Amino acid sequence: MTETLIDLIRHGEPVGGRRYRGHGVDDLLSEKGWSQMWHAVGEYNQWQHIITSPLQRCQAFACALGERYGIDVSVEPRFKEVGFGEWEGLSHDEVKIGRASEYQAFLNNPVNARPKGAEPLDDFVQRVNSAYEAAIERYSGHHILIVAHAGVMRALVAKTIQAPTSGLYRIKISNGGIARIRHAGSGAVLELLNGKLSA
Predict the structure, then answer these.
(1) Whose C-alpha in 33, 42, 85, 106 is 20 to 30 A from the C-alpha of 119?
(2) One GO term of the cellular component aspect (predicted)?
């Protein structure tokens, strides 16, 4: 079987600092966010295709990277971030302090204690996995880059290591952090998490 190599990069820091951004908040990357992403990839350009979330904090960098190296970019709506419902746009402190009991319940049980109006976690994982499986099938034997969000990367890391959905928020994904998943005859292996490709 031919190997398929998937790199994933989380968007850098958006304008507005740390806050809950699901797919309802579409902030642009800050200057720091751009530099985090360029620093993570360095001069690396071995991908044959780039797939991006439709949200600006991912798509703007994906298009700039594709343009720089002449790599085709496609947008995959199923790679947008999980919907956070009422928490969308709130800072971490507003949730941690202002909604302390909700926040604690969410930490203890992220599958069943969702913020009001949030996308069900199992639905989110299913949509991300369906997009990922389609990409692996389409780009079998290739090396591709997926530009996405912490939630999307958590879902794909959990799928790779066969961790339960309830453990998703125990996986730290840094801004500009790169993960690498190698698909070979023996199945998928997570080779890198929160790494950089630059020397």
Answers:
(1) 33
(2) cytoplasm
